[in-house]
Structures are given as C-alpha cells and as structure tokens.
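Students often ask why inverse folding is considered easier than folding. One informal answer: many sequences map to the same fold, so there is more than one right answer. In these notes we will look at a single instance of the problem. The structure comes first.
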C-alpha cells in the first residue's frame, strides 16, 4: 500500500527536523535582516543576491540550537558550551561574586565561529547570583580574557549543595552576551540559558576536589560532555 502525498510530505518534514537543528530565538532578528538584505541585493544583481542568500543561511546556521541528551547521573557537571577546552587551572572565581580568595578548578571552553553558540546549564539547581560586568574584547582563547573581557557570571547551587560558577565571556568578535535566567530561578542540567554572538568563551568553576574528566585540546558537546565529577561522587 503506497502512502498518500500528505503522509510522504509529513515524513519529509520530520526527517528535515531531525537533520536541521532549530534556531535560537535570539537569532531571528539577524536572519530577518540578512533575508531583507538578500532581496535588496537581488534587485541590484543576481550574483549579489546569491551571496546574500549564503549569508542568510550561514546566519541561521550560526544561531542553531540542536537538541542534546544530558547524562542523568548525579554529582556531575556537564559542559556549558560546545567548543574546545583551552585551559584547566586553579583560579579564584570572578571578584564580583564576592566568594573570597579560595581557588576553584576552572575549565575554560573556547568557541570558534563554527561552534554552536548557545550556553547550557552545567547542573540542576538554583541560580543564586547573576552579575554582568563590562570589559575588554580580547581574543577569548587568551587566559587573561577570564579577567579582562566583558562577561556575565552565574553562581549556581546544585541540588547536592555544591556551588558552581559559569561565566559567559565575550571575545574578539563577540559583542553581545544574552542570558535568559535570573536570580532565584530553578534550572535543569542541559537546558539552554544563554547565547554569545560571534566567537567567545565559557568558563566553568567547580569546587576543589572535583575529578576533572577533560584535558586541554579536547572537544566538548554542550549539555552532554561530562567535565567533572563533583566532590562526594562515588565512581
């Protein structure tokens, strides 16, 4: 028995949804602007219209938000972003949180313009503090970018009582940090909470004594790659 054209069409739509990831709402104004520019360029010359269409497609692709399956294990912290681990070091958390001078373990993930740029919650818990701090726009792969660059910092208390710090850091090209969560809000591991536009870095601070499971140079998948087992977690 052959399928009706309607069923075949619905099947193709489902296949497309499985292949083409949805777009984060923050990207819609940019895609719309690129589409309007494409129409204007098309009126001037066909090759310019083709270039505009490519730009529109790339913009939509940049703001993609693929679905992820977050590990359900307790006592872990997952990667807050797609990218490459650039540093693993002991560091004092951002001063604006007023957590004192006790170092935590910092895992830095650098995002190139080709990576998914949404950020994801590293562990289930509650947002205790949210602090934005203006700053410079140094290349995000530099270690001093953690101190000098524009950033948005969250202090998260996990359901097990651990305190994690996750920091969105603007980069050389990135000029806009978007954060959708607020203080007092309950969040779930792997859920999208923000976005950095066009090249950036995300730092995750975990308590000392955590077992770090990644190394510099390793690729991460936001919401899926386990970066650390938190203290008190049995292997």
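Output (designed amino acids):
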């Amino acid at each position: 028995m052959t399928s009706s054209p309607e069923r075949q069409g619905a099947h193709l739509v489902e296949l497309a949804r499985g292949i083409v990831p949805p777009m984060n709402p923050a990207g819609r104004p940019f895609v719309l602007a690129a589409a309007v520019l494409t129409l204007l360029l098309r009126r001037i010359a066909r090759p310019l219209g083709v270039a505009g269409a490519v730009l529109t497609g790339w913009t939509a692709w940049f703001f993609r938000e693929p679905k992820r399956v977050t590990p359900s294990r307790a006592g872990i912290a997952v990667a807050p972003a797609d990218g490459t681990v650039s540093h693993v070091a002991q560091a004092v958390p951002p001063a604006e949180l007023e957590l004192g001078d006790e170092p935590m373990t910092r895992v830095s993930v650098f995002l190139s313009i080709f990576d998914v740029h949404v950020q994801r919650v590293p562990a289930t818990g509650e947002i205790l503090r949210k602090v934005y701090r203006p700053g410079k726009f140094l290349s995000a792969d530099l270690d001093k970018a953690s101190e000098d660059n524009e950033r948005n910092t969250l202090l998260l208390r996990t359901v097990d009582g651990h305190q994690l710090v996750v920091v969105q850091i603007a980069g050389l090209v990135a000029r806009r940090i978007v954060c959708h969560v607020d203080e007092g809000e309950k969040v779930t591991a792997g859920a999208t909470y923000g976005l950095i536009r066009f090249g950036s870095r995300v730092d995750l601070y975990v308590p000392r004594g955590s077992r770090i499971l990644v190394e510099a140079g390793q690729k991460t998948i936001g919401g899926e790659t386990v970066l650390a087992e938190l203290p008190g977690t049995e292997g």
